[in-house]
Amino acid sequence: MERYSAAWWLRSVLIWVVVGFPFVASGWIVATIASRGPLLPVFAFALSVSMVVLLALILDTGQGDGLDFRVWLTVPLFLMVAPATAIVLGGFVAARR
Questions:
Q1: Rounded (5°) CA angle 18-21-25
Q2: pLDDT given at position 64
Q3: Which of 28, 31, 45, 60 is the least crowded, having the fewest Cβ atoms under 10 Å away?
Q4: Distance between CA atoms of 94 and 33, rounded to whole angstroms?
Q5: Taking each helix axis from N to C terminus, what angle separates 39-61 and 75-95, rounded to the nearest 10 degrees?
Q6: What DSSP line would sit under 3-56, residue for residue?
Q7: Model-level pTM?
Q8: pLDDT band at 25 (very low <50, low <70, confident <90, very high)
Q9: Nearest to residue 61, comparing CAs of 49, 46, 76, 80?
Q10: What 3-state class would DSSP assign to 81?
């Protein structure tokens, strides 16, 4: 598949929808189950998911030639921010009801 073709973009969007939906749904579920103040449990859950991802990335990095901060500002940061953002989005959707 040629990079940046229409098929590539469609596949990328579909992957993000499939991967992001469980995070949005889990944020919605946490906010729905919370009896008082649904956003605090949602933020706590989003923070815990981000910390688990950060810990897994640190443990998976292992020994290397050195720490290249450019690498840490791309994929790992995105892997921590994207799920937390989707969880909070789902929590906001549930809290607005």
A1: 155
A2: 58
A3: 60
A4: 10
A5: 170
A6: TTSHHHHHHHHHHHHHHHHHHHHHHHHHHHH-SS-THHHHHHHHHHHHHHHHHH
A7: 0.67
A8: very high
A9: 76
A10: helix
* Average pLDDT of the chain, as a whole number: 81
Instruction: Using pLDDT thresholds of 50, 70 and 90, give the confidence band for residue 46.
Output: very high
pLDDT in tens, 63-74: 555 566 666 666
Side chain identity, residue 55: L
- Cα 44 to chain centroid, rounded: 14
**What is the distance between the alpha carbons of residues 78 and 45, in angstroms, rounded to a whole number?**
17
**Tokens at 92, concatenated:** 């906001």
Buried b (16+ CB within 10 A) or exposed e, 13-42: eeeeeeebeebbebbbbbbeebeeebbebb
Give which of 21, 27, 67 is closest to 46, Cα–Cα: 27
DSSP class of residue 65 equals S
